[in-house]
Specification:
With 520 residues, the chain is an all-alpha fold. It contains 19 helices and four strands. The strands form two sheets. A two-stranded antiparallel ribbon has the order 1-2. Strand 1 and strand 2 form a beta hairpin. Helix 6 runs parallel beside helix 13 and helix 6 packs antiparallel against helix 19. This is argininosuccinate lyase. Pathway: Amino-acid biosynthesis; L-arginine biosynthesis; L-arginine from L-ornithine and carbamoyl phosphate: step 3/3. InterPro entries: Argininosuccinate_lyase, Fumarase/histidase_N, Fumarate_lyase_fam, Fumarate_lyase_N, L-Aspartase-like. It holds the Pfam family Lyase_1.
Length: 520
């Protein structure tokens, strides 16, 4: 057969076409068409070499340990194979034989080992399937990336808490429906950001805890040797196995669930980014960033822009797109292993993790450097009748005016005061009394009610419920958030420790076998 060119090494004879030992299959008589290689197989292999190769190698080593335990491979055979698997951990080495192996990573690892070992053990890869092997490599990859996201989220949450502490005494206008509503504080607002981060961590933690080890499930129906699946899971750092063989290879729950959580996180973060973009605009001027985190206009020299916020908000959209693509690719496929599930449906997973981490790094950097302009925010708080809600409450609680009537009266006062050009800081008690009398009510202490209602410095402290703007309550929330972030950090470190224990046990098992062989 004619040779063909491949970016993964020199031109080679098609490996599927001959009856020799190098053939991968006896079922078809030709290897993949060059177009199929260039459009599908080689890009897939590049992705897997970049992202999955270490996890494939680790899973192969776990299989060696099990082969030895079952008496399928001797100590010498396991040691020889283990040595060559170390060589196969180099992407360049595996890529060099890809053209001989249908550009498939599992076949390429196998070919790398078989061409380097003098006497290939006949039983190596007996009772094995690529299906659970690739599902395992992908699950290991996903677990590692989730740990990265968790670390970035914890850092982001702590950054928000530090920013809240920096702005503890600053007042900030709060808005509903884009209209002035109630006075809050940056500390209160940023504690909401931390609460959202914790919500994401709780859900991502659940995804991480549900991760199960597929190794040992086989092609779809289980295996014929007595593989110890619990041991294999432990050696790979999982705390449980995917019990059902079919589900283990048919489903990629972790990819769906992880990207769903990233999509939800991105949706929330886009809204916080929108607020900062609004507050950074000339109509508000509430926030500022250092010049090195700002941009300019090519035509309007007076402008200082914050394009990093636009970048953050735009990138969160990619998280939703990635999840929808993964869900759509899995939708309506047969419930079993397939290329759609194992390859195409997971194609956007690395990009989703990369984007999420980029968003979190950028947003953390922004929050670390964020400054609220206290004079501007205080001026905005003083310029609007933010105390209307408090005034209605006081009219009911002190003047005994029914609540709905008090709401109407407070609203009429704000309209009349605004029309008269009255500042909230200089209210008109006579105006309030007159409006009340017109409605059939009496307000004896109108002066005190108005001063209390429109007291800007005391606005946040007037709230008494849990989760409110009251400074002591915000401090309590921040302390609770800091403690919970610490607990999540502990869980993340515990998972990493479990993975290290599994890797150490596997390494020690194989090293012991190598030492046993050397002493013989």
């Amino acid at each position: 057969m004619a040779p063909f060119d491949s970016p993964f090494g020199s031109p080679v004879e098609d490996p599927a076409g001959g009856p020799g030992e190098s053939a991968l299959t006896g079922r078809i008589s030709a290897g993949p068409h060059p177009l199929l290689r260039s459009e599908v197989l080689e890009p897939q292999l590049r992705h897997e070499l970049d992202n999955l190769l270490p996890h494939y190698i680790r899973a192969e080593k776990v299989l060696l340990a099990e082969y030895h335990r079952m008496g399928v491979l001797t100590t010498g055979e396991v040691t020889a194979l283990d040595t060559e698997l170390d060589a196969a951990a180099d992407p360049a080495v595996v890529g060099a034989v890809a053209a001989e192996t249908m550009s498939d990573i599992a076949f390429a690892i196998e070919r790398t080992v078989t061409t380097r070992i003098p006497e290939l053990p006949p039983a190596w890869h007996v009772d094995r399937s690529r299906n659970d092997l690739q599902a395992t490599a992908q699950a290991c990859y996903g677990r590692a990336r989730l740990l990265e996201v968790e670390a970035a989220l914890i850092a982001f949450g702590r950054s928000a808490l530090e920013a809240a502490h920096r702005h503890e005494t600053v007042l900030l206008p709060g808005y509903t429906h884009a209209q002035p509503a109630q006075i809050i504080s940056p500390a209160f607002y940023l504690s909401a950001l931390t609460e959202q981060v914790l919500h994401a961590l709780r859900r991502i933690d659940a995804v991480d805890r549900s991760a199960a080890c597929p190794l040992g499930a086989g092609a779809m129906a289980g295996q014929e040797l007595a593989w110890d699946r619990d041991r294999m899971a432990r050696l790979l750092g999982f705390d449980h196995v995917s019990e059902h063989a079919l589900r283990a290879v048919a489903q990629r729950d972790w990819a769906l669930e992880a990207t769903a959580e990233l999509s939800l996180l991105g949706t929330s973060l886009s809204r916080f980014a929108t607020d900062l973009m609004t507050w950074g605009g000339a109509g508000h001027g509430f926030i500022d960033l250092p010049d090195e985190w700002s941009g300019i206009s090519s035509a309007m020299p007076q402008k200082k822009n914050f394009p990093v916020l636009e970048r953050i908000r735009a990138r969160t959209a990619h998280l939703t797109a990635a999840h929808l693509g993964i869900a759509a690719a899995q939708r309506s496929t047969p419930y079993t292993n397939s290329v759609e599930i194992s390859k195409e449906a997971s194609a956007q997973v690395p990009a989703a993790f990369d984007t999420a981490l980029s968003v979190l790094r950028l947003f953390t950097a922004v929050v670390d450097r964020l400054t609220f302009e206290a004079d501007r925010t205080l001026e905005a708080c003083r310029s609007e009748h933010f105390g209307g809600f408090t005034l209605a409450n006081l009219l009911t609680l002190r003047a005994r005016i029914p609540w709905r009537a008090a709401q109407v009266l407070a609203g009429r006062y704000v309209v009349a005061a605004t029309a008269a050009g009255l500042s909230p800081a200089a209210p008109d008690p006579g105006l309030l009394r007159r409006l009340a009398e017109e409605a059939g009510h009496t307000v004896a202490d109108a002066d005190d009610l108005l001063r209390t209602a429109f007291d800007v410095p005391g606005a946040t402290g007037a709230k008494r419920s849990t989760g409110s703007t009251a400074p002591e309550e915000v401090r309590r929330l921040c302390a609770a958030h800091a403690a919970e972030l610490g607990r999540f950090e502990g869980r993340r470190l515990a998972r990493e420790a479990r993975m290290r224990r599994g890797a150490r046990e596997l390494d020690e098992t194989l090293a012991h076998l190598a030492g046993t062989r050397a002493s013989c």
